[in-house]
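Input:
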Amino acid sequence: MKRRLTSFDGTESFDAECVRPDRYRQLFDELSSPRLLIPRGAGLTYCAASAGEGVVSVDARSFNRILEFDPADGLVTVEAGIALGDLYRFTVPRGWILSVMPGSPSITVGGCIAPNIHGKNQYKDGNFRAVTDELRLFHPDHGEIVCSPGERPDLFNLTVGGYGLTGFILSARLRLQRLEHSAFRLRRLKVRSLLEAAEMMKDLADKVQVLYSWHDLNVAEFGRGFVYAGDPLEGNGSDQELRYQELDAETRGSWRLPLFGRFSTRSSLAAYALTQGWAGEEATVTLSQAFFPPVGKEFYFKLFGRKGLREYQVLIPHDQWPTAVERLKQLIVNRRVPITLASLKIFRGRGGLIDFQGDGVCLTLDAPEGQNTRELFADLDRWTEDVGAIVNISKDSRLQSPFLERIFPGFDSFRQQLAVFDPKRRFDSALRKRLDV
Amino acid sequence: MSDEAKSAVIVGASSGVGRALAGALAARGWKLVLSARDRRDLDAVAADLNLRFNVACEPLPVDLSNCDFAGETFCEQCVSALGEIDALFYVAGAIDDHDDGSTDDETTLKLAQVNYVSAVKTLGAFAKLFEQCGRGTLVGFSSIAAAVPRRQNVVYSSAKAGLETYLRGLRHRFADIPVLVQGYALGYVDTAMAYGKKLLLPAVSPDAVANEVVRNLNRDIGIKYYPSYWRLITLALRLLPWFIYKRLRF
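Output:
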């Protein structure tokens, strides 16, 4: 069927052909057709990674079953269309949890593998690759292939963080973390700047399980905000049941008009800061609140209206951070763009190919879609290059291949490996065309 | 809610309403035989339900489009897997995009076989079993298409109408003993059958259908329309004069 598919940020739309197989026979028929294909999960990637002009989006969400569970070693094998929230409901009562989860429980496991997402404390837990033990992949020219860090590691590394371009993930074996608590002590630590926050977070990174920050960049005291640090709280009774609103690009853009302007952003962020200040320095939160902080706040995305939002996520090396913050302040003040969200995380590790991984400070910025925002983000691209940073490809619908080739040492290798594995470009998307891989 | 020690056979359990029904019953502790054409789908559903709800689920692949399909043999296989059986749900169905009344023999046979002949063979075999046991529930799934046939589903709607008539007859036969015979005439359901089609009204989820079926398990409901507003709609459509009905494109 033809459907209008929109990237989650609302900036790209396509009249795409969509199929939703619900049996393997039907799935393999679709995947073996001569048409261009791309797997699709919940469609929550900010850019159009699971849709494109002339591409058939294969909805994976009927393939959402749990196939194996080893309660002794904490290994679970699932079909890739399972939503994280569904998996959470299965593993948590059994004393296990997936330690690397993005904020939305609607995201599918395939949707975590494709951009190699990170969770609430990348420094401690790594990216999704760190919890992925083995994949079963289907590509019409190669059939079913099993790959893992030990078996066909090149294909495994190309697939985790490969944006669905290596084929349809039939199943994934994931490594869970033992869960010995059902609540967190969430400390809310007030900071006056981004620099202060990053220093504090570097100290806390290996000591806590959940670590992120929130900042207001629209005020004179640039970067004031809070660092959120969550420690497990033992013996705190049972977790509340996880309930969440299904989120997708269509419902995100259901409000026609944007409500984030300069004044409304300043006032709403000031009000948020006030409520956080009043809430005190410490709170007990449930496991689900700690792992899925945006749950219950989905309206935030709707406030951008149909026009959408832009997100910039960048990983800045520690030694460049102080200089980077100074320049960031100048750029934001000059462009007068309302920054609706600014947040930090601490990262470490070596990223492969085009992964968003490395040693440094991860900064996330949201702003309403518009000319000023695009100009600011173009400035930020130059700033990123100057400070030797990398950006998160899955978060930004503007990024073009020449820029990415310059900032990712592995970009060319990604392109070459993909060309060898899928020379006919059977798997395609708007993202692939934009990246020119 | 738990109905421990109850057991059921679901034919057409690999997707859509059948799969949702398997989930709803497994969540209540029912032991299940899950049947459909492909083992790979059945294995996945069975593993999932077994892990989530700790219930025994036995996959039993069967090709309902095959003329040699034997209802009694299938019934015996189910009895050896489950022992006592409390309910049979025949959810399987087949459609064809070119079912305009001039399909080739092979397609016609397949549609008639899956939607009617194999349904009757299966329901008949289990009817005999339940009669011997003196209890049991037989559930068949029809469609609103049975009441208001259209040019796009000529063989399908006639087969479903036949199935409905069969269920009515069977219900009459078992009127005096505690064997329940239920039928559902389903409206639009969000399954592969409806996906991508332009629908006049919203499709209900397979889970909603499954919950309704479980809710009615011990009730003598006869043939029930679900969602219930379809009873009124189909009645209104049947009352339309032919010169209007023939112009409808739905």
